[in-house]
């Protein structure tokens, strides 16, 4: 069983990201679950979403309290949210940021990767400079850092699940995969 | 108790019936029963000519214009005239006013008047008696028209060379085009009416001469005598009576107007004079002793005069004409204030001290009223308050002589004159037949205003709902079933355009607007098969019948709940006590 | 075909596959996606059905009652306050013996305001004459809606399919979506013995006072009895075509279990994990999932639980002043079975979206094993601040 938590802001697409990841993992033969943090949240507020995958049917129906990996769609959340809460030791923290690696706070005990998903998204015409749509790009970085999902499965999941600009989104995912920066791959 | 079991005797799934309840009759405990009735609408009651307003609006709303026109012609021979110049008391009485605005009855009448009637008016079975009508104004021609339809031979005597009286000589053509008037008059004459024009009874021929060989005379000579201002200097040049002025213009004779014309008065004649003067190139000012609110002129006339830029001096009375070289050179006036109401119910004007001023004027037109020329009346005819005395059926103090219109005590409006002529016709008919007019008229009455239906006299009661001699009051209308729909305003030519000449000001409705406006009618007191009673009846007792406009009641199952009457939008159902 | 679907969409797929003809619904979280997709499907032609917009859930139910009475297969979905607002019309649907189907996305009732899962909405409607199912997964939600039409149309009673708000409605997981041909083979076109028809007029819902009212209500109760067999038949037939089968109750690892957990809804899935774990540790515990709550499967409950030592019932709602509703039903089924055995322990958990995690269920088992006799009142898990 693998459990992943997404942090984002309302409207940024964290829930869709968790669904696309589930779809990709399903295409690779897994049983999956994806769900938002239950409730309702206004645009811009911190939100979370979750993906579970296993080679056996998933019977557990609880929230995810101890994820294996964490994906952060908005680096500004690092200042306000404990994104590593409950994260299993050795887990990956994949962050969308335009900060250079030395400006990322140290996360003792975890592996860290960054990607400027905003720049990648804008290059593909996804969103506007103040609000780029990064949820597909950052999945490429997740694939690159963790190796838990294949890029091809992700690409197909995006083409299947994204209703508008699916090709640009798929290409953004591939591009982000290429320009992911691995800051710390050892604990 | 009825079993609700299925065909096989077993209970169905749920409560489902397999037979109806027709066996379950109301029995004897009902004590009220609905009755489909026809009541009078307030518009019809208030029409002095007795028009079946609701009836012709219904037909017009159905697009049956020829029938609508035929309906009007049952009561009045002047649809083209009344569609334009009537003071429309029907609209003042319209129940629709409690919802939004009165239906533009006049606008619909005008619209249908352009068609040909489905059944042209026909003379009645010929009778021996001969009747003379003196005066060819609306009263005289209306009387002649109805007498002819009653079968009498009629001769109209007119002192002028043209027919129509005030309709022709008094009303300007921009309100009533001559072709419209002639169309109505031609339709009357087509019934076969004798004409003697250019002879003035009482002057060119004697009343005895007229009465010889005739069984009745209707005297409708109008009110054409000048009423002066009774001020100093009034007899000088440049001061003229309004009716004389309008007559000249209508006959195409030159009217010597100056540049600044003061029109004295606040009635329709004053409005006509001022607007005609404007069209002849003068600058008129209307001088009226009270305020705009008290003006007796039709409101629309005042409005149109204002739009055309005519000036008004309200609360102003002339006191002296300033004369220069025998010609009027100005008008000394005083300002008024309004004191308590006088006998007419209007607030009495009284002069404000030291408020006199000079009004610039080189022509003065007086339009403060017209009087009956008493000199030409038959010797010994009773006169009261300056007009011919008549009873409620137009009978004068002399045998064989009836009177009405402006020469009688009626209101001096076209529609009142039409009504007076019609009333005299029925009265003459009753007398000549040796019948009691009240007995004849009673079943013909439309409410309590004195109007009556000639259609009902000539054709008998129409089938359908039971007539009830009651006028629908506004509170009897169920407004829940009527949407607010504003009255459609008839198009009028722009003021700057219309003052250029004597083209008609009002454009009238097109077909679309006429249909929409006619459909605004509530049809007070007359079933229009809206289906509300059928829809609401809890016992499915109401069926639409074979007779158009008529519903039928299933007597055996009605329990007298009264919902149908309550929900009838137009008060055409009454609950009747059963014994 | 397998797809990753949210529970709401599993339900809307099921409605479409059932070829519903009239849908009327009023949106409410967490049901919204159900009607959103159905409305879109009606608009774009994927579904040949009439979607009727209404101003309330009361009207939505009234609308599908009318549609069904006229002979259409009709569907609605609601939740929480929406279901409560339908209450009057729920009686009408069952009393008129109309086989409508409704998905209820279980959600707490406020106040305090809450949009998350518990069962107080549907448990409050147990007496309305509706057949009730509680499902554990999105697959089961889809399958049960399809089965529901077969059952409803057989016994002429309405069916409510309950799925846990968010835990299913908003959770995407793998669902095997059946082919239309297979569903058509399983679900024949709908017909009613008597329907609104101008060619064959009857009065429907006509007054019955002391003559036939009780007889018709007795028929309803008899139809409820038949619904158990109808549900089993529907389940068997479903298994033949689709290879999936659920039963009215599902015993899980109950062989030789002295203690049995009784659950419904999504707590069941988590409880399976706990039972597996405890079994590995030598605890003699099993699990009984209650899928059908109305009609209540008395006989199988009695035979499955009658000879156990201890029963721990987890309720996601409370009948205030009494106990958890499911616990009461289990006790009633076991009453007089054997002097004081089995002992039934009632637990209240997961109200208003409170997560019920494996450690909670383990605590429930531990407490059940610790007490000699059940305490007089239910034990609340997770109520501490």
Describe the 3D structure.
The complex is a heterotrimer of chains A (187), B (579) and C (385). In chain A, 29% of the residues lie in helices and 24% in strands. Chain A has helices at residues 14-27, 117-123, 137-146, 151-161, 166-178, and strands at residues 2-9, 31-36, 46-54, 69-72, 92-96, 111-115, 127-128, 131-132, 181-184. Chain A is of the alpha/beta class. The longest helix of chain A has 14 residues, at 14-27. Chain A has a single domain, classed as 3-Layer(aba) Sandwich (Pyruvate-ferredoxin Oxidoreductase, domain 3), CATH 3.40.920.10. Chain B has 579 residues and is α/β, with parallel strands linked by helices. Among the domains of chain B are: 130-223 and 372-435, 3-Layer(bba) Sandwich (FAD/NAD(P)-binding domain); 228-368, FAD/NAD(P)-binding domain. Helix content of chain B is 27%, strand content 19%. Chain B is built from 20 helices and 23 strands. A 5-stranded parallel beta sheet of chain B has the order 4-3-2-5-19, covered by helices on one side. Chain B has a 5-stranded parallel beta sheet with strand order 7-15-8-9-10. Chain B starts with 31 loop residues before the first strand and ends with a strand. In chain C, helix 1 (7-17) crosses helix 2 and helix 3 runs parallel beside helix 4 (80-95). Chain C has helices spanning 7-17, 32-44, 57-69, 80-95, 120-123, 138-155, 180-186, 213-242, 267-280, 298-305, 325-334, 358-370, and strands spanning 2-6, 22-25, 50-53, 74-78, 101-106, 131-134, 159-164, 172-176, 249-252, 259-263, 285-290, 292-294, 310-315, 343-348, 379-380. The termini of chain C are far apart. In chain C, strand 2 (22-25), helix 2 and strand 3 form a beta-alpha-beta unit. Chains A and C meet through helix 1 and strand 2 of A and strand 8 and helix 9 of C.
């Amino acid at each position: 069983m693998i459990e992943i938590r997404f942090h984002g802001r309302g409207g940024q697409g964290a829930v869709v990201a968790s669904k696309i990841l589930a779809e990709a993992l399903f295409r690779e033969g897994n049983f999956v679950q994806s769900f938002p943090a239950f409730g309702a949240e206004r645009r811009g507020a911190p939100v979370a979403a979750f993906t579970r995958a296993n080679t056996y049917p998933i019977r557990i129906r609880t929230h995810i309290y101890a994820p294996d990996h964490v994906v952060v769609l908005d680096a500004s959340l690092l200042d306000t949210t404990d994104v590593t809460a409950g994260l299993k030791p050795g887990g990956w923290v994949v962050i969308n940021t335009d900060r250079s690696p030395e400006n990322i706070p140290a996360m003792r005990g975890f592996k860290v990767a960054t990607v400027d998903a905003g720049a990648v998204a804008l290059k593909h015409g996804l969103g506007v400079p103040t609000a780029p749509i990064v949820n597909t790009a950052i999945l490429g970085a997740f694939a690159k850092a963790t190796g838990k999902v294949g890029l091809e499965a992700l690409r197909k999941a995006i083409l299947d699940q994204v209703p508008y600009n699916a090709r640009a989104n798929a290409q953004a995912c591939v591009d982000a995969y290429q320009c992911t920066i691995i800051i710390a791959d050892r604990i | 108790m009825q079993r609700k079991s299925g065909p096989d005797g077993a209970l169905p799934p749920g409560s489902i019936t397999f037979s109806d309840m027709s066996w379950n009759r109301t029995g004897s405990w009902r004590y009220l029963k609905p009755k489909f009735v026809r009541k009078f609408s307030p518009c019809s009651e208030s029409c002095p000519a007795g028009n079946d307003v609701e009836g012709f609006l219904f037909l017009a709303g159905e697009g049956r214009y020829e029938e609508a026109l035929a309906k009007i012609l049952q009561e009045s021979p002047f649809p083209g005239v009344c569609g334009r110049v009537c003071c429309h008391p029907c609209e003042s009485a319209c129940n629709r006013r409690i919802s939004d605005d009165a239906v533009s009855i006049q606008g619909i009448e005008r619209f249908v008047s352009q068609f040909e009637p489905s059944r042209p008016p026909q003379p009645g079975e010929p009778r021996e008696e001969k009747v003379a009508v003196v005066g060819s104004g609306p009263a005289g021609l209306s009387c002649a028209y109805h007498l002819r339809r009653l079968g009498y031979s009629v001769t109209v005597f007119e002192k002028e060379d043209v027919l129509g009286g005030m309709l022709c000589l008094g009303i300007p053509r921009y309100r009533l085009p001559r072709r419209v008037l002639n169309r109505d008059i031609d339709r009357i004459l087509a019934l076969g009416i004798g004409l003697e024009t250019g002879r003035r009874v009482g002057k060119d021929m004697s009343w005895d001469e007229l009465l010889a060989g005739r069984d009745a005379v209707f005297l409708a000579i109008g009110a054409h005598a000048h009423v002066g201002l009774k001020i100093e200097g009034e007899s000088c040049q440049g001061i003229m009576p309004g009716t004389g002025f309008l007559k000249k213009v209508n006959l195409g004779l030159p009217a010597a107007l100056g540049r600044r014309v003061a029109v004295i008065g606040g009635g329709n004649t004053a409005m006509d004079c001022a607007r005609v003067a404007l069209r002849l190139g003068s600058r008129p000012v209307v001088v009226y002793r009270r305020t705009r609110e008290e003006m007796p002129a039709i409101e629309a006339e005042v409005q149109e005069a204002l739009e055309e830029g005519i000036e008004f001096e309200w609360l102003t009375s002339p006191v002296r004409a300033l004369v220069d070289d025998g010609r009027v050179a100005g008008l000394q006036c005083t300002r008024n204030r309004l004191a308590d109401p006088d006998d007419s119910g209007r607030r009495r004007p009284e002069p404000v001290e030291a408020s006199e001023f000079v009004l610039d004027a080189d022509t003065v037109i007086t339009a403060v009223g017209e009087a009956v020329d008493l000199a030409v009346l038959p010797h010994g005819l009773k006169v009261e308050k300056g007009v011919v005395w008549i009873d409620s059926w137009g009978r004068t103090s002399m045998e064989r002589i009836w009177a009405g219109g402006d020469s009688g005590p009626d209101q001096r409006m076209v529609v009142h004159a039409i009504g007076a002529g019609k009333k005299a016709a029925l009265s003459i008919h009753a007398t000549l037949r040796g019948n009691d007019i009240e007995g004849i008229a009673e079943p013909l009455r439309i409410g309590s205003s004195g109007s009556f239906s000639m259609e009902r006299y000539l054709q008998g009661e129409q089938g359908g709902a039971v007539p009830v001699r009651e006028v629908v009051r506004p509170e009897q209308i169920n407004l829940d079933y009527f949407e607010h729909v504003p009255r459609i305003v008839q198009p009028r030519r722009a003021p700057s355009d219309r003052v250029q000449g004597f083209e008609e000001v009002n454009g009238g409705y097109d077909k679309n607007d006429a249909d929409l406006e006619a459909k605004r009618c509530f049809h007070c007191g007359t079933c229009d098969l809206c289906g509300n009673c059928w829809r609401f009846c809890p016992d499915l007792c109401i069926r639409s019948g074979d007779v158009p406009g008529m519903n039928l009641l299933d007597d055996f199952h009605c329990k007298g709940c009264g919902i149908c009457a309550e929900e009838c939008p137009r008060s055409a159902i009454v609950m009747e006590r059963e014994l | 075909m397998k797809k990753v679907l949210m529970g709401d969409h599993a339900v809307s797929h099921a409605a479409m596959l059932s070829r519903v003809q009239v849908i009327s619904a009023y949106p409410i979280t967490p049901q919204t996606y159900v009607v959103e997709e159905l409305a879109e499907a009606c608009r774009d032609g994927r579904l040949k059905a009439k979607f009727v917009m209404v101003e309330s859930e009361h009207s939505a139910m009234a609308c599908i009652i009318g549609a069904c009475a006229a002979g259409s297969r009709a569907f609605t979905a609601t939740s929480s306050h929406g279901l409560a607002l339908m209450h009057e019309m729920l009686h009408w649907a069952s009393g008129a013996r109309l086989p409508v189907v409704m998905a209820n996305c279980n959600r707490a009732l406020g106040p305090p305001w809450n949009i998350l899962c518990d069962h107080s909405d549907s448990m409050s409607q147990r007496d309305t004459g509706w057949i009730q199912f509680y499902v554990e997964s999105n697959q089961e939600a889809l399958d049960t809606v399809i089965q529901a039409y077969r059952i409803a149309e057989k016994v002429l009673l309405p069916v409510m399919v309950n799925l846990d708000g968010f835990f299913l409605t908003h959770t995407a997981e793998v669902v095997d979506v059946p082919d239309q041909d297979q569903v058509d083979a399983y679900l024949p076109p709908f017909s009613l013995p008597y329907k609104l028809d101008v060619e064959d007029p009857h009065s429907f819902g006509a007054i019955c006072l002391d003559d036939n009212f009780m007889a018709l209500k007795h028929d309803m109760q008899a139809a409820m009895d038949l619904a158990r067999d109808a549900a089993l038949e529907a389940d068997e037939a479903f298994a033949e075509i689709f290879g999936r089968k659920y039963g009215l109750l599902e015993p899980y690892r109950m062989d030789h279990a002295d203690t049995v957990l009784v659950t419904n809804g999504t707590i069941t899935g988590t409880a399976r994990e706990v039972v597996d774990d405890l079994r590995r540790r030598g605890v003699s515990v099993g699990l009984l999932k209650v899928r059908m709550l109305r009609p209540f499967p008395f006989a199988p409950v009695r035979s499955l639980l009658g000879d156990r030592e201890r029963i721990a019932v987890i309720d996601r709602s409370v009948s205030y002043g009494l106990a958890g509703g499911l616990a009461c039903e289990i006790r009633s089924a076991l009453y007089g079975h054997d002097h004081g055995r089995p002992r039934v322990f009632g637990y209240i958990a997961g109200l208003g979206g409170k997560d019920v995690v494996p450690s909670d269920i383990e605590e429930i088992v531990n407490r059940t094993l610790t007490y000699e006799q059940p305490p007089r009142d239910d034990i609340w898990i997770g109520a501490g601040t």
